[in-house]
Amino acid sequence: MSFGKPIVAPNLGNIPEAVGGASELLYEPSEQNGLAIALHKSLSADLAQLSELTRQACDQIGWDEIARKTTQIYVAIN
Fold it and tell me: Fewer CB within 10 Å, N or C, the chain?
């Protein structure tokens, strides 16, 4: 993602949040052929559009923003 390229990844944890609108190539890890299906989708996906969406998502999650959100969580639980 840091290179602005779309990723094929499992739909787990914060990955959907991290990729933002570029979630077209996420797959359910519980699906037996999930990875294969996502890889096949990548062959016909609009990679230029997904790259732009990926770049936009990365712009939203810089280290300053991560630190701010983490601090908010710690303050909220104390």
Answer: C
